[in-house]
Amino acid sequence: MVLNYGDRALQYAPTKGVTVFRETLTRWLRSKDVRVLDEDDLMVVTGSQQALDIVARTLIDPGDYIVTENPTYLAALTAFRPARPNIVGIPVDSQGMRVDVLEEKLKELKSRGITPRFVYTIPTAHNPTGISMSLERKKYLLELASRYDFLVIEDDPYSYFVYDEADVMRLKTLDTEGRVVYVGTLSKILSPGLRVGWILANKQLVDVFERAKQSMDLHTPSLSQYIAKEAIERGVVEETIGRAKRIYRVKRDAMVEALSEHLVEDSWWIKPVGGLFLMVWLPRAIDAKAMLPKAVEAGVVYVPGASFFVDESGTNTMRLNFSYPSVSDIRKGIEILGTLVKRELGLR
Questions:
Q1: CATH number of domain containing 175
Q2: Could you give the CA distance from residue 210 to residue 191 in angstroms, rounded to a whole number?
Q3: Residue 303 belongs to some domain of the structure
Q4: What distance in Å separates the CA atoms of residue 101 and residue 86, rounded to the nearest whole number?
Q5: What SS3 state is found at 134?
Q6: Angstrom distance (rounded) from CA 215 to CA 273
Q7: Into how many domains does the chain fold?
Q8: Whether the model pTM is above 0.90
Q9: Over the stretch 126-160, which tens digit does the pLDDT of each residue have?
Q10: pLDDT in tens, 60-93
Q11: Which residues, at least 6 apart from 87, have a Cβ–Cβ distance to it below 8 Å?
Q12: DSSP 158-175
């Protein structure tokens, strides 16, 4: 890389990112049917986590209202909370965020003279639940954004590798008003260690984001950006996506089959179309956090779900990962979990 690009790969770069990489990334996004408007700009960030931090620093003042799914991505909550907003959690079902509940909440807030700064959502293969938002609800969400005048932060790490025929239309592509701030990352489709992500949004917003990033780290490492550029242009990213889809599909199917075989009837989950995770809702009598030490002792680890909930409800939930363990370990692990749950319920 240094031989090809010389000092440029080791020197400072513009805060928005290395120009040739931004051009390559923009072309790649368009090839994935992500709409890039003439009024848009793209900024490279040091992983999508930095994007969420920038959003919090620039768009949230103490006491502002923001909206997320409930549950939502834990690291998004940790990025938003230092700005001291009021976070409104909207429940999800098998079709994603309950936008009907969102509308009622927006009406209630408007009656008090409050407009949320933004709605944060992971519409495809949601983390932690694995649920994907239906096209109808995506359109409805954007209608509400227009009617009540708020931004939508679309976090999209997983839509590039889905395992089934599914709608992965991005909110950014449906957006005609420049309301969507589109956040992406190469962490899941190339390498998390490169720490390369992006924000695609209206130029006026990106200008604000750029000034915030400049005070944080000046720019994302130049060498990482040149590596990412070559990985896209040489087809390494597409190869990684293809390999991930083949491997993770088998593991996802193994986990879903094992859950159906071993968990009690009152449990609930969604078969994710993509991503790396799913969430299991266990009978309400189960406290997943209290059960965790017993699971660890039995050889199984999961993430208790309460911390993903804005109100820390969901004590009977757990997030499971199917990308890392082998198929045999998945089957064995779910069998162990099923036995533990039955013991907790006094069924064995």
A1: 3.40.640.10
A2: 24
A3: yes
A4: 17
A5: coil
A6: 38
A7: 2
A8: yes
A9: 999 999 999 999 999 999 999 999 999 999 999 99
A10: 999 999 999 999 999 999 999 999 999 999 999 9
A11: 65, 66, 67, 68, 77, 80, 81, 310
A12: STTSBSSS-----HHHH-
